[in-house]
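One thing: can you check what follows?
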Amino acid sequence: MLRVRRKMKKIIFMSMVGMVLCLFFLNLKQLSIDSKVKIQKFVKSVHRLSHDIHMANLWRNSNGKRKHCEIPYLEKMILPTMSNARQDVTCHRVKPHRESCQIADDLFKSKPIGTCDHQKNYEFCKIKSYDPDDMARKSYITCSINQCVLPVYLGQINKNTGEKIWTPFNSDADLVNSIYEIEKQDNFGFFYIKCVLSNENGDLDMSNAFFDQDEGVFFVLQLILLPPMYLNHTEQKKTAEEQINVNIIFIDSVSRHHFYRSLPKTVELFSNINTNTKTKVLDFQLTQSVRSRTFETLQAMFSGYVNPDEKPFGVLAMPPVALKTEELLGKFKEKGYKTLWLEDLCYLWEWGIVKDLRVYDSTLSQIETWTKLEAALLKANIDSLGITLTSCEVMLMNNHNDPFHDLDTVCFNGRHHHEYFLEYLQMYQTHLNKMNRPFFTFYETNVAHEDTGRRIQTLDVHLEDFLNFSRNQLNTLTVVMSDHGNSYGDFLQRSEEGQIELYHPSMFLIIPEKVSHYLGDKKMKNLIENQNRLISHLDLFYTINSLLIGGEQVKVANNNQRFKVTSQGLFDQISPHRTCNDMPMINPNLCICEGFESTVSNDADHVVYAHFALGKINNEIQREYRKHHRRSSTGVGHCQQLQLYQFTNVRKSLNDNMMTLKMNLEVQSGVSNSNETDIFFVTMSVETSNHKITLQQVERISGYSRYKTCADEGVSLPFCVCDITSPHSTNQNHLSLYDLEENILLMQSSIHHIENKCLYLVSDDNHVGLVLYAVNICKDVYFDISVEVQHIKLDISTSLPVKTQVFPGEIQFLTSGVRSSPDSKWSWSYTVNFMELTLK
C-alpha cells in the first residue's frame, strides 16, 4: 500500500507540473522577452527535477532496505584448506545494487553477439600445417590465384624502413616457392597476398576491399601468419635448461564482473579445468586497480613503479617518461627468454606501445617512426612486435584509426581481429617450446575498449579455444587479466556499480601441474589463500620477477614499502587485513572494499565542495583557452563554462588528519534542449583541522570524443562541453550582468560591484559556507586583483590573499569557505585591491 501511495503522489505531482507548463506555454506569446527567458529556465529546472527524482529512486541511500546482485565466482573454485579463510579477511567487495543487474541485462543482453559475416573471406594461399617437421616439405603450402587478375602480389615488411615491399607473381608454383623461402628466414610473422579480383568472379565485397589510388583499382588482402624462425642450433643448446614460460593475456577495459557477464564459455572452461584436471585456475577476486588508465597499470606491472603523489599526465599528452619494460623483461632476457609484445593498435597512430615508449610524434615520417620504434624496443628488451604490425591495415579496413569508438566488431577478411592474434600466439609458443626456448609473451587486446560493453562477447569462443591450448602447455604460467573496467559508456553513467567496476579488474592464473611442482607447496598454498585478499598489479610485478631460476631476489623499492608488498608478491602470504590505505591507488579511484568509503548525502552540506571542484575545472578551461586566444573578449570559446546541475555518488574516507571526498559532478551537455548531462568524477583532499581543500584529480565519466568537432584549439578535450549541433558556429556572446543571475545549485547568489565599472565579485552561500568568484564584463581590459577575506567561524579553503588575473569575459573562481563547526553562525567580509590593464 505504501508503494502505491508513493506512486500516486509522484503521478499527481508530475500531472500538476504538466498543467503548469501547459498554462505557461499557452500564454508564452504574450510575455516579455525577459519573462520568456525566465520561463525557459524554469522549464529546464523542472526537467532536471524530474531527472533527480528518477536518479533518487535509482541511487537510494545505502542505509535503506534493498537486495543486492550476487558477486560472481567460478562454479568450481580452488579453495584454501582453512574453512574460515574468507571470513577472516578485512576487505569484502562492495555489494552490487540490485538495479545494476537490471541495467546490465538491458545494456549487454539486448543484442546478439557481433560477427564478421558481413565480410567475405578470401583465401588465395594456405599453410596446412605449422608443425616444424611438416614444414620441411613444400607440400604443406598450397596457392590458387586463378580468381585474380595477374600478377598477384606478396607483401612483406622492409626491415630497414617498415614499409611494405610488394613482389609480383604470375603462377601458383612461383608463389609457393617464394613463401617456402620466406618461411625459412627471419621474418615478422606474417605476409600479405594482394589480389585484384577478375570480373568473372562476381561482385566485389566492398566491406573487405582496399582502393589502390595509383592503379585506380580495388583489391583484397589475405593475411597469412608465419611461425618464428630466427633461432639457430647454437642458441638452442645454450638455453636448453628448463624454465617457466610466462603467457599474459591482457584484456583492456573489462572488470571482473563484466568478464563473468561477457565470457561464459571461458568461465565454464575455468571451472571444468578445476573439476577435471590437475591444472589449477585461480581467481583473484579482490584486485584493486591502480588507475582507470592502462599506462599506470603497465608501469606497475613491468617496472614496479607507482607514485600516487605524482600528478598524472593528460589523456592526450605523452607520458613524461617511457614505460620501463626492461625492469622486468631485461631480467628474463638475461636468462635466455624470447620476448614478444602483441597489441591490436596501429603503431603509426597515437596509442599503445608507441605512446608507452614515447615514440609517437605526428611530425615524423613513417620511416623515422620505424627507426625510433626499433631503438625503443631494443632498450625495452622487446624482441618482436609480431603481427602487431598488421594492425594499421586492419584499422584502415575498418575506417578507423583506433578501435575505441563506433565499431561493433573489428574484422579483417571475414575474421575477428583477435582471432589472428590468438592463432599467432599459439603458433609462436608451440614453436618455441619445440625449440626448447623459454618465452615471455604479452598480448593486449582492446576488444572491450569501446562504448557499448558488448564487443567483448565476440572474444569468448576464441579465448576459450586458446586457453584450452594454454592449459596443456605444461611449463607455462598463464595470466588472464585486465587493467580496469570500462571507463566510459552507459553502464558507468547509469549505475554506482559501473563506477566500482571501473576499479575492479579481473585476474586469473592458470597453473599446470608441472608449474605447481616447480613453485612448491608453500607458494601454491599462498597463491590459493591470496585469491580473496586485496591485491594490486604491483603484487604481480614481484610475483613474476620471483619466477626466474637462480635469479636474485628483487628488493622492494623504498617507495613501494608503504604498499605492504613483498619481494615474492603473490607467492608470499598477503595480509588478510590489507585495506585500500595500503593500495597503490592513483586518484581518481574508488576502493572496491565495503565500508572503506562511506556514502554521504548530496545535500547543502557538501555542495560547497562540488562548487569548489567545478570552479577549479572552469578556471583551467579559461586558462587553456586564454593561452591560445590572448586577445579574445570572451572568457571561453566553444568549450563552455560548466554549470553544476547536480552532484551524486558522494563518498568520503578518513585517514589521519585528512578526509578524501569523491563525487560525480553533473553539468550541461553539448546537446541543446535535452535532458542529457555530462559527468565528471572528482577527488578532493580536505584537511579536517582547517578545511583546506585540494582538488586531487578530475576524470570524465561521460564520453567526450563527440566534442572533437566543436572544441577550441588548446582546450583539453576531456574538459570540453560544446554545442555539437552547431560545431562550426563562431557566435560567442559577451558576458553580461544578466549571466551572473543564474540560479546556483543549493546556494544563494549575491553580486558585489567593485569600484571599477567592469569588475564584480560574486558570492554564492548557504548555511554551510560560501564560494567566491571575480568577474570581468569588460571587452578590452583585464585586472590584476588581490582579494582578502575577513572571516569569523568560517574556514577558508585556500591561502589568503587570493591573487589572480581576470581577463575579459572571465568568471574566475577565487576561493570557498566552510563553517568551522556544525553549529557555527559564521560571517565574512572582503577587501579588493586591483589594477586595471589594457588588453594588448
